Amino acid sequence: MGKIICALFLQIFLYLFLWFLLVLMIVFSYFDYNEIDWNNNGSVSLAEIFDALDVVKIKTKTSEDNCLDYLWAKDGSFIKTICGKANKGESK
Ligand SMILES: [Ca+2]
Questions:
Q1: Ligand 1: distance of its center to the CA of 46 in Å?
Q2: Is residue 66 part of a domain?
Q3: Each residue's pLDDT tens digit, 31-90
Protein backbone atom coordinates (compact mmCIF):
# COMPACT_ATOMS: atom_id res chain seq x y z
CA MET A 1 0.00 0.00 0.00
CA GLY A 2 2.86 2.39 0.84
CA LYS A 3 4.48 1.86 -2.53
CA ILE A 4 1.22 2.67 -4.33
CA ILE A 5 0.80 5.94 -2.40
CA CYS A 6 4.45 6.83 -3.01
CA ALA A 7 4.06 6.12 -6.74
CA LEU A 8 0.86 8.20 -6.81
CA PHE A 9 2.57 11.19 -5.16
CA LEU A 10 5.53 10.82 -7.49
CA GLN A 11 3.18 10.82 -10.48
CA ILE A 12 1.30 13.90 -9.21
CA PHE A 13 4.60 15.69 -8.58
CA LEU A 14 5.79 14.80 -12.08
CA TYR A 15 2.57 16.12 -13.66
CA LEU A 16 2.77 19.37 -11.67
CA PHE A 17 6.44 19.79 -12.61
CA LEU A 18 5.72 19.23 -16.31
CA TRP A 19 2.74 21.61 -16.11
CA PHE A 20 5.00 24.26 -14.53
CA LEU A 21 7.63 23.76 -17.26
CA LEU A 22 4.89 24.19 -19.87
CA VAL A 23 3.80 27.47 -18.23
CA LEU A 24 7.41 28.69 -18.22
CA MET A 25 7.83 27.79 -21.89
CA ILE A 26 4.62 29.59 -22.87
CA VAL A 27 5.35 32.71 -20.83
CA PHE A 28 9.00 33.07 -21.85
CA SER A 29 8.27 32.45 -25.51
CA TYR A 30 6.10 35.58 -25.44
CA PHE A 31 7.78 37.81 -22.83
CA ASP A 32 11.30 38.71 -21.84
CA TYR A 33 12.20 38.32 -18.18
CA ASN A 34 12.18 42.07 -17.45
CA GLU A 35 8.76 42.54 -19.08
CA ILE A 36 7.11 40.27 -16.52
CA ASP A 37 7.97 42.53 -13.57
CA TRP A 38 4.37 43.84 -13.43
CA ASN A 39 4.76 45.79 -10.19
CA ASN A 40 8.17 47.24 -11.22
CA ASN A 41 9.95 46.21 -8.02
CA GLY A 42 13.00 44.89 -9.85
CA SER A 43 12.35 41.17 -9.48
CA VAL A 44 10.00 38.62 -10.99
CA SER A 45 7.92 36.54 -8.60
CA LEU A 46 6.25 33.21 -9.28
CA ALA A 47 2.87 34.97 -9.15
CA GLU A 48 4.01 37.44 -11.83
CA ILE A 49 5.00 34.54 -14.08
CA PHE A 50 1.52 33.04 -13.74
CA ASP A 51 -0.08 36.49 -14.17
CA ALA A 52 1.76 36.75 -17.50
CA LEU A 53 -0.60 34.10 -18.87
CA ASP A 54 -3.33 36.75 -18.69
CA VAL A 55 -1.42 39.65 -20.30
CA VAL A 56 -1.29 40.82 -23.90
CA LYS A 57 1.07 43.36 -25.40
CA ILE A 58 0.23 45.62 -28.31
CA LYS A 59 2.07 48.35 -30.16
CA THR A 60 1.32 51.75 -28.70
CA LYS A 61 -0.70 53.79 -31.18
CA THR A 62 -0.20 57.28 -29.79
CA SER A 63 3.48 57.25 -28.89
CA GLU A 64 6.82 56.33 -30.40
CA ASP A 65 7.09 53.51 -32.90
CA ASN A 66 9.07 51.26 -30.60
CA CYS A 67 6.69 51.22 -27.60
CA LEU A 68 4.46 48.43 -26.35
CA ASP A 69 1.43 48.62 -24.05
CA TYR A 70 0.77 45.74 -21.66
CA LEU A 71 -2.89 45.05 -20.88
CA TRP A 72 -4.82 42.53 -18.80
CA ALA A 73 -6.55 40.22 -21.27
CA LYS A 74 -9.62 39.74 -19.07
CA ASP A 75 -10.73 43.40 -19.05
CA GLY A 76 -8.23 45.33 -21.18
CA SER A 77 -7.04 47.43 -18.27
CA PHE A 78 -3.64 49.03 -18.66
CA ILE A 79 -0.57 47.67 -16.84
CA LYS A 80 2.44 49.52 -18.26
CA THR A 81 4.26 50.72 -21.36
CA ILE A 82 7.81 49.78 -22.30
CA CYS A 83 9.66 51.71 -25.01
CA GLY A 84 12.92 51.46 -26.83
CA LYS A 85 13.63 47.76 -27.11
CA ALA A 86 12.98 45.00 -29.56
CA ASN A 87 10.16 42.87 -28.20
CA LYS A 88 9.07 39.41 -29.12
CA GLY A 89 5.51 38.26 -29.64
CA GLU A 90 3.69 41.57 -29.74
CA SER A 91 0.28 41.86 -31.42
CA LYS A 92 -0.02 44.31 -34.28
CA1 LIG B 1 7.91 42.25 -9.52
A1: 9
A2: yes
A3: 999 899 999 899 999 999 999 999 999 988 775 678 899 999 999 999 999 887 655 655
